[in-house]
Design goal:
Blueprint (H helix, E strand, L loop, with lengths): L2 H11 L6 H27 L1 H8 L8 H20 L7 H21 L5 H25 L4
Helix pairs in contact: 1-2, 2-3, 2-4, 2-5, 2-6, 3-4, 5-6
């Protein structure tokens, strides 16, 4: 979630057609929202035990229905993130929605008393992506932001 967006930004920045801020939004929405949330959503839907057991530390299979619903939401966000390449007007709304999602997820990981390695990795990446997406949104929406 760092290498591919940065490589995409640098590649397109070389053409000099778009400002850096726009490219940050475009490529982080594509990779961190589109690709990551789509893949996470597929995994959550088809392998809910990974998220419930290995990320959240919940062993009960009854949690799988909630993880599958989360997977559906992640699939929906991921598709919007992927579509933003063809529909640039999707970039800002996707950044706002996913930025809030990542911030809330990060907060829940921070609050977790039994955070393991998988949850720590998720927490750090969620914080990083939330800062990038919400920073892009603020800089885009707030004059001089």
């Amino acid at each position: 979630m760092l290498v591919l967006p940065v490589a995409s930004i640098l590649f397109e920045l070389g053409a000099g057609q778009f400002p850096l801020l726009w490219l940050v939004g475009k490529w982080f929405v594509f990779w961190a929202v589109g690709v990551r949330l789509l893949l996470a959503g597929l995994r959550q839907y088809f392998q809910p035990a990974f998220t419930s057991r290995d990320i959240m530390g919940i062993e009960q299979p009854e949690a799988h229905v909630l993880v599958r619903e989360l997977g559906g939401a992640n699939l929906a966000s991921g598709i919007v993130g992927l579509a933003s390449i063809a529909m640039p007007t999707f970039v800002l709304p996707a950044a706002i929605g996913a930025g809030i999602f990542y911030a809330v997820a990060a907060l829940e990981h921070v609050r977790s008393a039994h955070r393991g390695t998988n949850e720590t990795v998720a927490m750090v990446s969620d914080i990083f992506i939330a800062v990038i997406l919400l920073g892009f949104a603020c800089c885009t929406l707030i004059p001089g932001g």
